[in-house]
Amino acid sequence: MPPFAHALLVLILAPLLGAPAERLPTPDPLRAAGWQKGGWPGIKPAQFEALPDGGLRITGVGQGSFVWRSVTQADACLFWRWRVDHGPPATPLDRKGGDDRAIAITIGFDGWPPEAGIMQRAKHALAQAMAGDHRLPRSMISYTWGGTGQEARPFSSPYMVGLGQVFVMRPASTPTSQWFEEKIDVRKDWRDAFKGSAVPPVLEIMIGTDVDDTNARLDARIERIRFAPC
User: Which end of the chain is more exposed for a tag (fewer CB within 10 A), N or C?
Assistant: First the structure.
C-alpha cells in the first residue's frame, strides 16, 4: 500500500500514482475544524480526533488514512508541535513497500517543480479533470515522524513521479511521549527540494499516518499548526 505521506495530498491524485484512494465519511468535529478525510480501499482507516486550535490526535493499529484542508493564505514559515506515544519501528522511507511512519504533515503547492516534464504534466492534467473545480497541487513537500534517519534530506518520494520531496524531521528512534516544536521555512525548503527560485503559493495541507505494513500500534498528536512570519 503506497504510504499516505509521500503524496496523496488529495485523494483525487490517486490516478496519477496508480493507487486507488477514496473519500471517507468525515466526522462533524473534523469537518467543523476544516478537515476532510480520505483513505484507501482495503486499508482500515485510523481514527482522527479534532483537538483545540485545529490539532489532531491519531490512533489505531495497523491502519492508514489522512485528512486535508485548503490553505487560503500562508506566510513563509510553518509552525507546529507533535508527539508520538506509540508508533512503528524504523523503516526506510525512500523505497516502495514496508515504509511506515507515525505521522507526517504535507504541503501542496500551486506550481510545478522546474524539472516537471510533459508526461508528469499530462498525468496531472488527467487527475485535474477528474477533480473538477478542486485545484490540485503541482508539487508537494512532506515532513515525517518516522524512518531510519539515514534517508537523504530531502529525498524524492518513490510514489510521486518527481512531484514530491520528503524531509525526515524525526526518525522513528525519537523519544516518545514528548512534545517537539517544529518550524520550517516553506520557501527555502521548496527551493532546496526542487532547485527552483520562484516559489509557488501554498494550496493545501495534509496530515496522516501509515502503519499498516508493520501492524504497529499508533497514538500520535499534532497541534498548533499555523503559518506565520519567520
Answer: C
The answer to whether residues 103 and 58 touch, using CB atoms and an 8 Å cutoff, is yes
pLDDT per residue as tens digits for the range 204-219: 999 999 999 999 999 9
Which pLDDT score, from 0 to 100, does residue 160 have?
Answer: 76
Q: Chain-centre distance of CA 177, in angstroms?
A: 22
- Residue type present at position 182: E
Tell whether 2 is covered by a domain: no
Indicate yes or no: pTM above 0.85. yes
- Residue 135 neighbours by CB under 8 Å, 6+ apart: 110, 128, 203
Is residue 192 in some structural domain?
yes
User: Does residue 113 lie within any of the structural domains?
Assistant: yes
Domain encompassing residue 27? 11-212+224-228
217 within domain boundaries: no
Q: Model confidence over 59-89: pLDDT tens digits?
A: 999 999 999 899 988 899 999 999 999 999 9
The Cα–Cα gap between 69 and 210 comes to 19
